[in-house]
Design a protein that fits this description.
This protein is α+β, with helices and mostly antiparallel strands and 279 residues long. Helices cover 66% and strands 15% of the residues. Helix 2 packs across helix 6 and helix 6 runs antiparallel to helix 7.
Amino acid sequence: MYYYKLFLCLLFLPAGLWAQSGEVSLTLEQSVSLMNKGNRTLQMADKAVGIARSERQKMNSFWYPSLNATGAYVHLSNNIEVKEPLKQFTDPAKDFVHSILPDDRFISSILDNIGAHTLTFPLLQRNLTTIDANITWPVFTGGKRVFATKIGNRMVDFAQVGREETEAVLQTDLVAAYYALRLAQRVVKVREETYNGLQKHYQNALKLEANGMINKAERLFSQVSMDEAKRELESARKDLTVAQNALKVLLNVEDVTVINPVSPLFMNDDLPNELYFKN
């Protein structure tokens, strides 16, 4: 039930926040779910598992019959046929008739009409289609089928182990990036408070110097402290930007402007106190 509620929160709440302001607040659990769903390295690892399973299916095909089918279709401009003119048969007949009846015209006219035609024998049609199919069922292949199955299973096992290893490494990187961002936000807040306090201190130093209560060296010391606090604040903000980008890459959320980690920082209460290490 907890994971079901977590999934619903992840499905609806962040989407609404992204659409409105490009800013989202995520717990560590929600970040892990987002990474498992959208991280490209994990997607590549899943593809590798799928490829290994496909290869195993190909290797398992040694146990089953295979059917190979090929086909061809040809369209010709004309039908393929043999044409024989009948004149080559009627001319000898006319000569024979004239040898018997020299003045014959009736039979000769009939033979001339027949000889004007051509006898056609069709061989092939204009559209030709051929299909060849071969079925093969392996009966004996030695140990080829057995070892092919074992190799396919090992390929899938290696791919799954690689996927689990990738996920474990990414989860470690995610925890480090998540709490690095959380810590960077706290550091920026502390640096801002420090800078604001030193800025007020510098303004007071200017007033004291104007009234002759402190000398220029003391006022310059306040200014140097304020400038140093400003440089540290700018450096902390840069570190915050780097931590933001690192977490965005792990979660693959390019459309999000700011990620606010809401899981609190934790303290390890099992460690000894400071006095133990000093002693």
